[in-house]
Design a protein that fits this description.
2 copies of one chain form a homodimer. With 249 residues, chain A is α+β, with helices and mostly antiparallel strands. Chain A has helices at residues 25-30, 32-37, 43-50, 109-112, 133-142, 144-169, 173-189, 200-207, 211-223, 239-248, and strands spanning 53-58, 63-65, 73-79, 82-87, 93-99, 104-105, 119-122, 126-132, 193-195, 227-230, 233-236. In chain A, the strands form 3 sheets. Chain A has a 4-stranded antiparallel β-sheet. In chain A, a hairpin with a 2-residue loop joins strand 10 and strand 11 (233-236). In chain A, helix 5 (133-142) packs across helix 6 (144-169), helix 7 (173-189) crosses helix 10 and helix 8 (200-207) crosses helix 9 (211-223). The longest helix of chain A has 26 residues, at 144-169. Chain A binds a DNA duplex (30 and 30 nucleotides) through residues 172-173, 199-201, 209-213, 215-216, 218-219, 231.
DNA sequence: GTCATTTTATGATAATTATCATATCAATAA
DNA sequence: TTATTGATATGATAATTATCATAAAATGAC
């Protein structure tokens, strides 16, 4: 519990699960983070890093870390979706990215900065691991294979954010909506039917649009039978056309 | 010369300078890349990495690497300015970033990808060092302090690109011009008077605008006495107002 | 279940930005 | 030096997007 004090987790009662059996093979199986590290670490290194790790259940809407807070952990998503977001003005925010299962939460700036320049909030009920940044830095210093693995994995996250951002900036509004719907379908849910985890406002914040226009264009897509909307569930009916709209954008 | 074959450098005659005296202290002084590494490497590691390095003079406008080419080097700028750019359509390109002296050229994707997803071109006559990616990866594997240094330095570049991109996307057109002029003044030239190294079209590609609007707004800023333009030289006459325009964006 | 707040939906209007057109100037190559 | 191309400049118009307004539906707290 030593590092968790510096991160504001609000909901009492805390539903944290302390991994009390550090060598328990049952724990080993259910924790994808541990599995992920398996290749780059020796058993004792795995043990050492695991000792710096805490796993928590986070409720939908809970703020995990706020902009300006010191970065003392690397956060990994076992389950759920997490948004990185930044306030732009009194009334506007941007969502930088959505971290999905088996992603690290955050960008590589966690290594070059001491404070978060964004906030982190759970979009849906999630299970995350907090790993002490200091422990990771120590491991990097003494294990180059681990260093490379971390660079590769975390740079992939940052790359995706960057590529998506550049792609979106050359699209018109319809192209952006098409892009984000296809992203959800192809990269998060692997299905053309999914429960949209974010509101129209959050979509707007993710793709740099006004909420009204998100609402409007999704209605239009529904009217044109490109998608079907039933409550929070969206089904893509015409993926080819959506792809065309996205790339023409 | 073994790794340079895989990167298209076109201009004959090649003005490359081969660092023939690998332990020559004169060479050590003029190469900022070598100075940069000093803290993280032992002498023999420095020697080893230096053996994988080639320094070149690149002419303004020369393409250093093209989108789709394999990534086999890490590129470092000793002198000059280098743009990372990507074609969006037949007629449109985006400039991802401009690398300045003492920067690495490229993003952290060089570690997670095998091919460049952007092209690299010299904006002005430049001196760059190509360091074999394989050598760097080997060094990372065996030297955690170096790994950490590389992560930190290269992630800073990627961070800057990301932060700038997000900042720009919430600004209007005037705010973007103000932002980029201040960026040149504060972060590249450290002076309110500088020779603009890029055309209006390139500025447009850098900040997601149409060329005509870049021209128009710079003319307007000149008419309003916020800047003075004389040939390629720009002088910021009213930095406070530019800052206000940039943040109001 | 009630109530307050937020979200979704739609219409109208205003502002911003892109596109098209024309002309002049500057840079480059032969 | 000359011809060509690209860059800069400006005007007019069209398209896109934001903003403002109103209303209905959904959500969350008590």
């Amino acid at each position: 519990m030593t590092f968790i004090i510096n991160c504001n987790i609000f909901t009492p009662p805390k539903m944290g699960i302390r991994m009390s059996e550090k060598r328990n093979s049952t724990g080993c199986q259910i924790c994808s983070f541990r599995v992920m590290l398996f290749n780059a670490l020796e058993e004792d290194e795995l043990y050492k890093l695991n000792a710096c790790r805490e796993q928590f259940l986070i409720r939908r809407g809970e703020v995990i870390c706020r902009e300006g807070e010191p970065i003392e952990s690397i956060i990994y998503v076992n389950q759920g979706l997490i948004k990185l977001h930044k306030r732009v003005s009194e009334t506007r925010s941007q969502i930088i990215s959505i971290a999905r299962p088996h992603d690290f939460v955050g960008l590589l700036s966690v290594f070059s900065k001491t404070k978060y320049y964004y906030s982190i909030t759970a979009i849906e009920d999630s299970s995350v691991c907090f790993i002490s940044k200091e422990c990771i830095l120590n491991e990097i210093r003494s294990n180059g294979r681990f260093a490379l693995d971390i660079i590769t994995r975390m740079s992939r996250i940052t790359d995706d954010v960057l590529e998506s951002k550049f792609a979106l900036s050359s699209k018109n509004l319809r192209g952006r909506i098409a892009h984000i719907l296809l992203d959800f379908a192809d990269n998060i849910y692997n299905s053309n039917e999914f429960r949209l985890p974010v509101s129209r406002r959050e979509i707007a914040e993710l793709i740099d649009m006004r909420t009204e226009n998100v609402i409007r264009i999704m209605s239009e897509f529904r009217k044109d039978r490109l998608i079907r909307i039933n409550g929070h569930t969206v089904e893509i009916m015409n993926p080819e056309m959506l792809r065309k709209i996205s790339s023409a954008g």
